[in-house]
Amino acid sequence: MLQNRFGKLAATTLVGTMLMGAAACGGSDEPATSAKPADGASGAPAAAGGKVGLAYDIGGRGDQSFNDAAAAGLDKAKSELGLAETKELEAGNGETEAAKEERLRLLASGGYNPIIAIGFAYSGPLKKVAAEFPDVKFAIVDDADATGANISNLLFAEHEGSFLVGAAAALTSKKNHVGFVGGVRVPLIEKFEAGFAAGAKAVKADIKIDSKYLTEPPDFGGFADPAKGKTAAEGMFDAGADVVYQAAGGSGSGVFEAAKAANGLAIGVDSDQAKTAAPEVQGVIMTSMLKKVDVAVFDFLKGYTTNSVKSGSTVYDLKAGGVDYSTTGGQVDKIKSKLDEYKQKIISGEITVPDKNS
């Protein structure tokens, strides 16, 4: 979900790395079915040994969440598609758009093609750089505004997956009181909150839902401040909540710490965080809203190698397996049938999940 650390360059030349564990899919550990791309311009094929550039969001590889999901897709592509060289660059907290432009320009001028930008903050910079390098294929995750003949927009129905974990929170809560911690108050993160609230209220119409955003734009530090995440969650647990969902990138680790200290429960995001979070807090993560950035990244790179990259938007929704909930740890086993019932109602259209707060 979200934006990265210092602008250090983490250039790597890696060969044949095995795929990092794919996130669990709706009660199983099987990978999601890939979404079908939208129509648009096709890209030039990348021969085995092609050079792939990836510009991370705040936090970079190792954030245990959004960026690590992207890294998993890149690792799978390196293993299965024979990519000989990749360069992975990180964004800096509070950096200018000019810095993001230069990061993308560095990759393009260095012969990397295709290039993937992770996170909506690359929107303006990517649109500008893509116009400068029309023969390079670009993809951006979580943004539909940067458009062009050589830009693929990889989007997700975060509100649908969040509905499922909101229902899980309400079904599990013993106090009829849950919470949501968002990293930065932007429309993307508000989709997570809207879906979570809708799911919780579908189970218990009178449930109390606390909400807190760690920062407001243009300050994107809320995605990389575990101390703020911990403080926000502590306030919710102290006020009586017993389950807190975080959509806060690297700040989510603080939410998990607060849940453990309060003998409460937390809900992870993007990756299956009962697997990726620090071992000492994994037990408090009852489920995670899975956002299959790994699937989208791999799909794009595979399409590039087969000359089938499409420009424009591809939406990875619940029906396509782009979002889901995890079952690691068995804490939602008793309510899995109810969650799957909600899931099928969303897929069939019987339930329409709001993507904005009412």
UniProtKB/TrEMBL annotation:
Residues 1-24 form the signal peptide. The keyword Signal applies. InterPro entries: BMP_lipoprotein (IPR050957), PnrA-like (IPR003760). Residues 57-356 form the ABC transporter substrate-binding protein PnrA-like domain. It comes from Streptosporangium album. Pfam families: Bmp. It is found in: Cell membrane. Keywords: Cell membrane, Lipoprotein, Membrane, Signal. This is Basic membrane protein A. GO terms for cellular component: plasma membrane. The keyword Ligase does not apply.
